[in-house]
Write a structure and sequence with these properties.
Layout (H helix, E strand, L loop, with lengths): L24 H13 L6 E4 L6 H10 L8 E5 L8 H6 L16 H4 L4 E5 L6 H13 L1 E2 L8 E2 L3 E6 L3 H6 L5 H7 L2 E4 L10 H15 L6 E2 L1 H9 L5 H15 L4 E2 L1 H4 L18 H15 L4 H16 L4 H8 L3 H11 L7
Parallel strand pairs: 1-6, 1-7, 2-3, 3-6, 8-9
Antiparallel strand pairs: 4-5
Helix pairs in contact: 8-10, 13-14, 14-15
């Protein structure tokens, strides 16, 4: 039976894969790798920064697999409620808990015969990691409140924007589950690392949003294209989409100009700094040199703890924001803060 939930099922990405993501040589290499592994039923772990297009890669894997006629179900593990996560993934029977007025299939059953895409897999609670591992091994799910398991035929593709190896080392992600998911590993490069994709994607977004806004043809000035190519895109494809959407809302005469992009001017190179000045990285290197010369014990742990604490304070005690700032999972951030005594284990 179909299963939908606004809280956990991710909306389809704006860019539906028609090759627009794969113009740059690095993307072309990724596309070739996708073609090699898509026909199998092997689990795939898709890695990359937030906004790089990991779901587009997952959909491409599904489209080129023998399961293409089956469902593709995308689920955001980071949006699960801890109290309902089991029921969401595996389903529940009527009366299994307060408010369960009827039986409902979980995401695994919804994806039966197709592909289940588990985004932000690193945010899955430890207790659920054990149960997910069992499902992957046994190929069956047991609904909450049920005694008889239900066989399932699902290919699992997981995605993460953090290093799961660090979460494994911190004891926050099961090593056996990590290797079960990582039969095939695909790395999606950041947009700044594949500049050949920037203009094709920009043109695709221009076409998409001009149609939504009921505009005629839109001309992108060459200077605006150069500005797009010169931007570092820390938010990756998602940032590019938002920039183009906003530019079309404010542009005049169906001509997209540099000023419509509202992008910050590129920072001046470090060599242009005034004499005696230094960048943040220069200052950090000097501080590290002093620490190295000091011969402090457990230096690496001291530096890591200092970085963790500084990020936590910079984000005003918000663990999620601090973890995102450092490119790690919230579970890893929390474990380190507890070990340092920065927060209570009950927090």
């Amino acid at each position: 039976m179909p299963h939908t939930s606004d809280a956990t099922q991710a909306p389809p990405p704006t860019i539906q894969d028609d090759g627009q993501l794969f113009q740059d040589p690095r993307s072309a290499a990724l596309l070739e790798r996708i073609g090699q592994v898509a026909p199998s039923d092997a689990s795939v772990l898709v890695m990359g920064e937030t906004g790089t297009g990991k779901e587009v890669v997952a959909r491409r894997l599904h489209a080129e697999s023998r399961r293409q006629a089956g469902p593709f179900v995308a689920v955001n593990c980071g949006a699960f409620s801890p109290t309902l996560v089991e029921a969401e993934l595996f389903g529940h029977e009527k009366g299994a808990f307060t408010g369960a007025f009827s039986a409902k299939a979980g995401w695994f059953e919804a994806a039966n015969g197709g592909t289940l895409f588990l985004d932000e897999i690193g945010e899955l609670p430890p207790a659920m990691q054990v149960k997910l591992l069992r499902v992957l091994q046994e190929r069956e799910v047991t609904r909450l409140g049920a005694r008889v398991p239900t066989p399932i035929d699902v290919r699992v593709i997981a995605a993460t924007n953090v290093r799961l190896e660090d979460a494994v080392a911190a004891g926050q992600f099961r090593e056996d589950l990590y290797y079960r998911l990582r039969v095939v590993a695909l790395e999606v490069p950041a947009l700044r690392e594949r500049p050949g994709d920037i203009l094709p994607l920009a043109r695709r977004f221009v076409d998409e949003y001009r149609r939504r806004l009921r505009y005629g043809e839109v001309v992108v000035e060459p200077a605006a294209e150069r500005r797009l190519l010169g931007h570092p895109w820390p938010g990756n494809v998602r940032e590019l989409e938002n920039v183009i959407h906003h530019a079309l809302l404010v542009c005049r005469g169906n001509v997209l100009r540099v000023e419509d992009l509202r992008l910050r001017e590129p920072s001046a190179p470090a060599t242009a700094a005034p004499p005696g000045g230094s960048s943040g990285l220069d200052a950090l290197n000097l501080a590290l040199q002093a620490l190295f010369e000091g011969g402090q014990d457990d230096l690496f742990e001291y530096i890591e703890n200092t970085v963790m604490r500084a990020a936590f304070e910079f984000c005003d005690g918000n663990q999620v924001q601090a973890a995102r700032l450092l490119g790690i999972s919230r579970n890893v951030m929390r474990a380190r803060l507890i070990r340092m005594g920065a927060i209570s284990a009950l927090r």
